[in-house]
Amino acid sequence: MEIFKCLPITLHYLDLSSSELDRLEMSYFVRCQDLQELKLSGNKIKFIPSEWRCPSLRILAMDGNSFGVISKGSFVNMPELTSLKAGNNPYHCTCDLYGFLQETRRKGKLTLLDWPGGWTCFHPESLLDVGVAAYTPGLMECDVRVVVAISVSVTAAVIIATMVLCWRFDVLWYLQATYRIVRSKYRARHAHPTRAYAYHAFISYSCSDADWVRQELLQRLESSSPPYRICIHERDFTPGKWIIDNIIENIESSYKIIFVLSRSFVDSEWCNYELYFAHQRAVGLGYEDVILVVKEAIDPQSLPHKFCKLRKMLSTKTYLEWPSEPSRQPFFWVQLRNVLGKPGAAEPSQDRVSLASVELGSDESVNNPAEEETAIDTVASPAS
Fold it and tell me: Whole-angstrom Cα distance, residue 185 to residue 191?
């Protein structure tokens, strides 16, 4: 570097080729305001300083050195530079070099005197001795804006698709329901039975079968002696409470669950939800709480995929079929009463789990603090 201390600052032309230089003295070029042509060929310069300022330089020769990186900012402080000779250097073929060459071609101000013959790749190894002119990286490899745009687009698409799927298949609803069920079962392990069932049976049916339920099923069961206490949604659900919470609470307040099966039942979303909760309650209990009443013949194999639980129950569980012949209907009622059991004769199942004991968003107070933690139902005589 001692050589720069001896040079005058009024030079217009400077040739330091083959001078064994490995770096440059930046302060000299800042003071050398009139330097227009500089030759540094055949040295050992390892990098081009980003702070290199040479305001009047027009011609620069740096071929045959040891630097491998040139970027858009390498000569930004040389506003008058029009000719560059920089071949025979061990170039790193990266996005920086590619960006410099693209900008040079686009602006057309700077001429590469030894392009493309003296420009070859040294790194990476897969491009060794390949001409720099042949190096064409992909748009995503070098343009951060494209990568960001694609990443944002893909992320947005995934989020939107997830939201649509969650909406379409009620995923959030099932997750919330599963959380409540798991929570209630966890709390039930440490709880003690503290209450009786409010209903002997909960009836799940579609609106299309409402007349048959009221005129036949309710009439027979609630007018028997002693009467069965039955829960149906249109009469016994609490007004103003979420339907989901009503379903959970009333299913778990019922000793048995009756499903009135028909094509309309299969087409009903709410019936599917009620079936889902009944299935969760029946886990480990063998579905003895579930009573299937087939009002219309249904081929289990024709059921939609979301009714896989119902398909399994129809294939493995004995069900009651409503006979169209009036002469056979009395036998149907005898069978149904046998499955339901006598009113007031139901005994509690000690391992029965109550979903209704999960926090359902109500503000009801409990007189006994221990009842707030209980999650096990005791079956007693349904209230008259």
Answer: 10
pLDDT tens profile 163-180:
887 777 667 666 766 665
The answer to whether the CB of 202 falls within 8 A of the CB of 254 is: yes
Q: Check: CB of residue 123 under 8 Å from CB of residue 93.
A: yes
Taking the C-alpha atoms of residue 120 and residue 91, their distance in angstroms, rounded to an integer, is 7
- Buried b / exposed e over 341-351, threshold 16 CB at 10 Å, is bebeebebbee
Q: Which CATH architecture has domain 174-360+368-373?
A: 3-Layer(aba) Sandwich (3.40)
User: Higher confidence at residue 304 or residue 158?
Assistant: 158
Q: What is the CATH number of domain 2-137?
A: 3.80.10.10
Tokens 């063998």 belong to which residue? 286
Domain locations along the chain: 2-137, 174-360+368-373
Q: What is the DSSP letter of 353?
A: B
If we measure between CA atoms, which residue out of 93, 49, 55 comes closest to residue 73?
49
pLDDT tens-digit profile of 58-70? 999 999 998 988 8
What are residue 321's DSSP bridge partners? Answer: 294
- Could you give the 3-state DSSP secondary structure of residue 355? coil
Q: What angle do CA 377, 380, 381 make, to 5 degrees?
A: 145
CA dist., res. 363 & res. 240, Å (int): 13
- Are 163 and 218 contacting, i.e. CB atoms less than 8 angstroms apart? no
Q: Which residue has the tokens 């990476």?
A: 124
Closest alpha carbon to 111 in 119, 120, 126, 101: 101
Q: Encoding tokens for residue 366? A: 């409990």
